[in-house]
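1st attempt posting a full record on here, be nice pls
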Amino acid sequence: MTNLCGFGLAAFPLLIAPGPTNALLAACGATAGLWRSVPLVAAAPLGYAVTVTTLAALVVPLTRHSSAAGAALSIGCGLYLAYTAWKLWTELLPGRAEAAAGFGQVLTATLTNPKGLVVALVMLPRPPEGAGLAASAPFIVAVMALSAGAGAAWIAAGALVRTRLRGSNGSTVRKTSSIVLAGFAVALLIVGVSRGVGWALPVGSGEANSTDGR
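the predicted structure (as tokens):
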């Protein structure tokens, strides 16, 4: 129980911090209002559950042995977040009908959220040998509960901005959310490219050295 409480205290600040999922939820609250956005809260815990479980079981062990796999994962997530940021921004252009993000969009943003990688790789306690993922289940459930609370808070914050601006369509929140998403996209792309370069350079260096030796 002590480990679970400590894990929760460490994970909640990460989950409630600005990020791709929270940016979209805030934009939804500002655009559609509080009550219409409440169903989207379920997308965050579902996305984190799938992400953390998959990463802990399959992807994280693979990335530890393959820099190329880690690079591909980072670049893929970065490209999706860049697309989401572009889509969120272009919906603000004159003549475009503005619509809140749907459940699927919030879910996909959570599935590609780098916070899931941090939780699975850094925060999630390693289970005892032979215990498998069953030992991690309480921690994954904790992530689901905490992310639901964080998501609800961001929706409420977006809805509050909408109310304070007397029914504004929340364009300011959506612009800010788009910029946040773009920032995460750039960071992920930089990490992915640097990993890819680090994976490729030794091969190139080895070939160059063998050529010089000839």
